[in-house]
Amino acid sequence: MNSLPRVALGVLAAACCFASAAAVAQPYDPSQPLTRAQVRADLIEWRQAGYDPLDWIDYPENAQRAGAIVAQRRAARAGAGYGAPAGQMQQ
Asked: Is the pTM for the entire model greater than 0.90?
């Protein structure tokens, strides 16, 4: 019976770490809060990078690996000019 509180504590710690990792992965602009659609799109992007929010056994490595992949993909999109205003494509 002693293992149940430890599991609950582990899940709580993992949830806190994920929340802080998500905050670091994307800059927060309080003047423009994220919409629900943006949050869902971000979660989909993380899951496509291999993050599984239910895999709490491999949690830190899983989130860090997915975070690095998401950051690389976003940097590649920014470097390729995706999302840049028309006429301002980077070369």
From this structure: no
For the chain, domain boundaries? 3-80
**Among 84, 39, 52, 48, CA closest to 69:** 48
Angle (CA) 44-41-73 rounded to 5° is 70
Q: Give alpha helix (H) positions in the chain.
A: 3-25, 36-48, 59-80
* Triad 69, 71, 74: Cα angle to 5°: 110
> How many Cβ atoms from other residues are within 10 Å of residue 34's Cβ?
13
How does pLDDT run across 22-36, given as a tens digit for each residue? Answer: 555 566 567 788 899
For residues 10 and 52, the answer to whether their CB atoms sit within 8 Å is: no
Rounded Cα distance between 61 and 55, Å, is: 10
